[in-house]
């Protein structure tokens, strides 16, 4: 009535009242009366908005990948957004233009440009696992974006849900990965077999080393035994040599003794021979009868009887038969035994 209207905004809408091109009133969740003839209202939504996106981009090795994700943003500077875009509303509350819907496109293009600039520097294989780094890059780039700042927009969060290659490329990668996995499986089998062979080889080498050590130890023991025997033989040799030397010295002393004894006996024999020679010379001058008498003077009775028997068998006094009584023989035997 008379152009007087009432408006009430919710807590997520920033109202701005313009009169003659000047802001006369603004705020979040405001309610007031205004004249539709003299005032213009702009309603800027300040709540966060989630904007999904799907981009078909190309990597540095000219392979197409599909990037799916979501960006969460809000209008942090409503006055700046109202300057750049037309948020004017009618008395019915509807926007007079489609600029508010274009804000999503502008934010999406800014995200697309940032993703493209970064993804074109990565080859396919690295791009498929580039999501964490890409998220950090987008947060940094969008926070400092001049376009978004001019629109009064702040990016709250960025999420990358998938980075997928084309179906043909995916099949090729799957086949390659499958072959690689099979190859790794075969390599693991070969490595396990080689490891088993190496372990067996190590065991054999240890056994041979142990056997060599045992043989070396036995050899050392045998050498020690031989050395001990050699020392024993050497000591025996030294003892024998000393014994032989002692025996030689003893024999030399004995030889000297024998020689001295021989010389003494020879000297005694010479003396005895000299005495006998002198006696014989004396006996030559004495008659045989005298010598016989002298010899018989020192004889015992039985010797004298034996001499008498001998005289009866020789010379002129020789007799043919001689009878000797048993009593005479018994007396001679008893005298000999006594």
UniProtKB/TrEMBL annotation:
Keyword line: Coiled coil
Keyword set includes Transport: no
Ranges where the Band domain occurs: 14-198
Stored SUPFAM superfamilies: Band 7/SPFH domain
Presence of the UniProt keyword Hydrolase in the record: no
Gene Ontology cellular component list: membrane
Pfam families found in the cross-reference section: Band_7 (PF01145)
Top-level taxon of the source organism: Bacteria
Record's bilayer topology term: Single-pass membrane protein
Coiled coil: 214-270
Localization of this protein: Membrane
Protein name: NrtR-regulated NrtX
């Amino acid at each position: 009535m008379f152009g007087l209207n009432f408006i009430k905004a919710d807590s997520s809408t920033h109202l701005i009242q313009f009169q003659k091109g000047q802001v006369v009133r603004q705020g979040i969740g405001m309610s007031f009366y205004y004249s539709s003839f003299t005032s213009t209202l702009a309603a800027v939504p300040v709540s966060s908005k989630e904007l999904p996106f799907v981009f078909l981009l190309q990597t540095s090795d000219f392979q197409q990948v599909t990037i799916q994700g979501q960006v969460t943003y809000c209008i942090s500077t409503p006055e700046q957004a109202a300057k750049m875009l037309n948020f004017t509303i009618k008395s019915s509350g509807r926007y007079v233009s489609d600029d508010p819907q274009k804000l999503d496109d502008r934010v999406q293009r800014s995200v697309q440009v940032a993703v493209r600039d970064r993804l074109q520097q990565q080859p396919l294989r690295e791009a498929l696992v580039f999501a964490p780094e890409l998220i950090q890059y987008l947060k940094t780039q969008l926070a400092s974006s001049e376009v978004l700042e001019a629109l009064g927009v702040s990016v709250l969060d960025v999420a990358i849900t998938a980075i997928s290659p084309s179906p043909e490329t995916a099949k090729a990668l799957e086949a390659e990965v499958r072959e690689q996995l099979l190859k790794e499986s075969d390599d693991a089998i070969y490595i396990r077999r080689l490891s088993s062979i190496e372990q067996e080889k190590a065991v054999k080498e240890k056994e041979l080393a142990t056997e060599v050590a045992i043989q070396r130890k036995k050899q050392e023991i045998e050498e020690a035994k031989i050395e001990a025997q050699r020392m024993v033989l050497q000591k025996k040799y030294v003892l024998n040599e000393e014994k032989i030397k002692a025996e030689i010295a003893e024999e030399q002393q004995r030889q000297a003794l024998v020689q001295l004894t021989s010389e003494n006996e020879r000297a005694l024999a010479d003396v005895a021979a000299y005495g006998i020679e002198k006696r014989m010379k004396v006996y030559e001058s004495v008659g045989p009868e005298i010598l016989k008498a002298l010899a018989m003077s020192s004889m015992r009775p039985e010797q004298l009887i034996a001499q008498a028997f001998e005289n009866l068998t020789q010379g002129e006094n020789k007799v043919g038969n001689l009878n000797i009584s048993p009593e005479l023989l018994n007396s001679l035997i008893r005298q000999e035994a006594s």
